[in-house]
Amino acid sequence: MPKPKILLQLDGDPQASVFDSVVAFDAGIDHLLRHSGVKSADVRNLVHGALFTRGLDELRRTAVFIGGGSVSEGEKLLAACVASFFGPFRVSVLLDANGANTTAAAAVLSAAAHLDLTQATALVLGGTGPVGQRVVRLLAGEGAAVRVGSRAADRAAEVCASVQKRVPNARLEPVGTPDAAQTAAALEGVSLVVAAGAAGVELLSADARRGSSALRVAVDLNAVPPLGLGGIEVTDRGKERDGVACYGALGVGSLKMKIHKAALRRLFKSNDQVLDAEEVFALGRELV
Amino acid sequence: MPKPKILLQLDGDPQASVFDSVVAFDAGIDHLLRHSGVKSADVRNLVHGALFTRGLDELRRTAVFIGGGSVSEGEKLLAACVASFFGPFRVSVLLDANGANTTAAAAVLSAAAHLDLTQATALVLGGTGPVGQRVVRLLAGEGAAVRVGSRAADRAAEVCASVQKRVPNARLEPVGTPDAAQTAAALEGVSLVVAAGAAGVELLSADARRGSSALRVAVDLNAVPPLGLGGIEVTDRGKERDGVACYGALGVGSLKMKIHKAALRRLFKSNDQVLDAEEVFALGRELV
Amino acid sequence: MPKPKILLQLDGDPQASVFDSVVAFDAGIDHLLRHSGVKSADVRNLVHGALFTRGLDELRRTAVFIGGGSVSEGEKLLAACVASFFGPFRVSVLLDANGANTTAAAAVLSAAAHLDLTQATALVLGGTGPVGQRVVRLLAGEGAAVRVGSRAADRAAEVCASVQKRVPNARLEPVGTPDAAQTAAALEGVSLVVAAGAAGVELLSADARRGSSALRVAVDLNAVPPLGLGGIEVTDRGKERDGVACYGALGVGSLKMKIHKAALRRLFKSNDQVLDAEEVFALGRELV
Questions:
Q1: Which of B37, B47, B53 is the closest to A23 by Cβ?
Q2: Beta strand pairing status for C237-241 and C244-247?
């Protein structure tokens, strides 16, 4: 009888995510080992407990999920997890802190249903936040020209430099979007706009959106009103508004959930996978 | 295949209750998400993780149990849980902090096997404590005249006022029971006495109990000797002593366990139930 | 249908051991209740939750595992667990903090495959540490003459006195092994050497080992290089080196894992077992 599928949930928050746990069970795992308040220094010992308990041929029946509200903390936990592997002793791991990887993948895949991304010019508002950066990475990796929008242009430039290192062929441009006028200017010639900013802040008005003739797709990732893109509904799922295919956070959500579950299932196929933004996106593409 | 039954256990204590967890598994749940040290401010995010992971038609496969040693803290967690629902996004929830609801229900149901509660006059000793208040609520709701006993008469009056708001038709009377003489006086004409005081304090002596000619049923909810009612054994289960049907804490316990499990199973029948004292009592009545 | 097999994992560390949890599931338990940061004062209430939820004839479907990195803390938790039982209300419990009991049992059983322990003279280097003390206890209980090695001779004498109380017939001798010369002297006439010291300290050089004509078996319990016994490999499993059967930590490890799982399974056979070093050893002997 095959060993039960065990998922180690590492979460930096004081209370481990219920969301991530329910999805894990719905993806078919047998047992969940939940850890809250996890710090980088804890990871090695926890992961070694997963490496040294089963034979090498059974290591793919144990996997690690890294969650928590902070993407930057999650990235540190992922680095500590990978650093604790040695030789053939490793298990597969998925990073989805704050849902950032599955959300970014679902947003870009939603857009790709309407656009040839290699020909697209995209503007990512809130492009320096944790989800925004991942949207930028994925769009750039798909060949789109990407404008990285931020209230602070220098912060946008830092993100461009960081993404360029990961995606050498990336075509990136930092744009300051501190006010409506500069945001409207940044939208010039853009066929895809994605809003990935903080909750409850409108980044682009409905009027400004309607004023753009090149725009084809608009994706808003904020579930709490007011949304980041004015005039879009949270449930929009490719709904045409003024000639633009619109997506709200819940509209993107069902694809995000499918990707999340598929990524969890994928973990148990082999013991050597590290699923971060690009890997989650590649996996999502198989689903659409 | 139906989604697995997941129970979210919210417990304010530093170590989540093992008792509540074992009962949950014995009631047939598939997976348990245990949270200790839960504060009201944590509840919204935890419960939202239960609301946003499954389709509306599957929400009844996820439920919340609120435990912990403090009933007043549990009531706050319940309020925070219900406040986090919106529209059709809700899951069923059972409050049984300190076992108070299932214990009070079992105590009142045990008495009802011997008495017509609508015709009964009851004295609840320790009636201002967390279990005692629930016994008062349930007896009053069943139509009994209830004397709420407390060492401090003003505290008893506060509880009467509080219960009257919940049960408008309640017939309540606060009685000070600081010593044996006043307790004996409070017992005058009483057909049911329930002791729900702190552990290890005798609230009514065996002699005083024998001196009451109207008494028909005596229920003690304290498992640690000395019991609250002198001359009763912790295992008594309707045992006749001097013409009075007597119950000890363990004698009430097996019905309490049945009610606890039935309430957990009930949670998964629909996603819109809030099971507090009255709902747990109604459910217990179906079992006896 | 029999009640599910529930294991209560009590762990004094801030993050409960993943290792112990995975082994528990691989040993066939149904549900695991994990508690981290457990102190002696917490144990009574946690264990009572296991005692009062199921009928007496079903208590063997619930058991306790005590782990954590500190063996001395684990021993305190075990004492508190046993003290919380009363009359027939008890559940079976396994202590394996830091893997000490299963490791010591596997080490002694590995040696016993090559030696008649009743005729052996053993030297336990690092004999005052948590694993070392258990190796001393088990060897003495099997009738071997045991030299308890420690850098501090007085600490070795304390351990000898402590073990003598548990094993009245024990033949023990404290030996100071602060340097190579005294360690070589302590090895004189020894047929079995076990190194159970701290990680990364060589306690006996390969040359010193080769210089001993009586030596038949050498067991090293340290998985991190440099090993405690020079010239031995961590994967050695009875490998002959210079006429000595050699074992490294991983070489002992597969037997240790078998013993760990067998001990967990044994817990669910009856509700009255307390599995510490000697009981785990006896159980291991049935496996080899």
A1: B53
A2: antiparallel
